[in-house]
Design brief:
By secondary structure, the chain is an alpha/beta fold. About 55% of the residues lie in helices and about 10% in strands. It binds NADPH dihydro-nicotinamide-adenine-dinucleotide phosphate (NDP).
């Protein structure tokens, strides 16, 4: 059984008199900074002197450069994009990693693939919410929390776990449950979803849209059937709440029979082979090397792929279709 930690397992007192430095004020940075402060812990936000830092100031935070925040912080949360963390770490974080400090990640990517290898005197910890930033904040303010993966890669102080759990509590994650994992497991699971599960879902949805419209179905009707009505989102929510098969009772028997009797053919051997391929690239580090080369080259492939996706005719149609079904 996975080990799960709740509020009673986490002592916020561990963070008393300490400063949590939040580096980056984006999706996770803003949400985590606000939650940690509302949990009674002192926070300083560090980043480049620009609009983002102004936003942190406007939210009432003490701010400074990345280097200044890393100097002040007892726990340094690196909440900037994964592919820029290595350079920022080398220049602005590493010089301030004195013994007793902890470096916290919201994703195990850089330590797991060895892009960041903190000195052995530093605690290396992870609180990785399984939720986008706005969800981390909204749930917290609603008195709820979001699940997180928690891990310790390096326990130099002997107190890395109490620090990790206190941080998870301050973010609101132990309200619902913080699941113990490792940097490797979190990274590989996260990437497997991103490299196989979501591409398969996106491809099947867009491919079905292309197929249906090519076969004479009205584009708006196809979109509404596939995802624009939000029924698909509702089904995913119910899956999380009552189970992937448990939620089937919300559908007609005709629907249930159709799904169950045709489920196997939706995952042919070729698709299973893609799963194995995705996992192999994650485990042997070839995706991480590819992404690092892509960053170094100025994101040429990423830019081309994203532009092509945003130029797909479905984008315009979605805008029009949303207007048709907005209440
Ligand atoms: P964002 O893309 O939202 O980070 C943006 C922030 O990073 C901004 O403050 C930006 O400042 C700053 N930043 C960008 N480039 C640099 C740079 N070169 N030097 C200094 N600061 C920089 O990141 P996320 O919140 O999406 O991700 C942060 C971490 O959280 C990652 O490890 C990610 O994997 C993890 N994570 C993210 C989730 C999410 O919801 N997105 C979910 C769970 C984990 P500026 O405006 O100046 O560029």
């Amino acid at each position: 059984m996975a080990k799960v930690y709740y509020d009673d397992d986490a002592d916020l007192g561990v963070l008393k008199g300490k400063v949590v430095a939040i580096i980056g004020y984006g999706n996770q940075g803003r949400a985590q900074a606000l939650n940690i402060r509302d949990s009674g812990v002192e926070v300083m936000v560090g980043g480049m002197a620009d609009a983002t830092l102004e936003a942190a100031k406007a939210d009432g935070f003490r701010t400074g450069s990345t280097s200044e925040a890393a100097e002040v912080g007892d726990i340094i949360c690196l909440l900037i994009p994964d592919e820029v963390q290595q350079a920022v770490y080398q220049k602005d974080i590493l010089p301030h990693l004195r013994p007793g400090k902890a470096l916290d990640f919201a994703h195990g990517y850089n330590p797991h693939y060895g892009f960041i290898s903190p000195p052995k005197e530093t605690d290396v910890i992870m609180v990785a919410p399984r939720m986008i930033g706005v969800g981390v904040r909204d749930n917290y303010t609603a008195g709820k929390g979001v699940p997180a993966f928690v891990a310790v890669q390096q326990d130099s102080s002997g107190k890395a776990w109490p620090k990790t759990l206190a941080l998870a509590r301050a973010i609101g994650c132990t309200r619902t449950g913080a699941i113990e994992t490792s940097f490797a497991e979190e990274t590989e699971l996260d990437h497997f979803s991103e490299h196989f599960v979501w591409p398969a879902i996106f491809r099947i949805l867009v491919g079905s849209f292309d197929f249906l419209t090519a076969n004479g179905f009205q584009p708006e009707a196809a979109l509404i059937e596939l995802w624009a009505s939000k029924e698909a989102a509702e089904v995913l929510t119910r899956m999380a709440e009552v189970g992937i098969f448990g939620q089937m009772d919300f559908h007609s028997q005709t629907s249930q029979y159709g799904t169950l009797s045709r489920m196997e053919r939706a995952l042919p051997a070729a698709t299973r082979a893609c799963m194995a391929e995705a996992l192999a690239e994650i485990k042997d580090g070839s995706f991480a090397r590819e992404w690092e080369q892509e960053r170094a080259a100025g994101y040429p492939v990423f830019t081309r792929l994203k532009r092509a996706a945003l130029n797909h005719p479905v984008n315009d149609l979605e805008r029009e279709t949303r207007k048709l079904v907005e209440g």
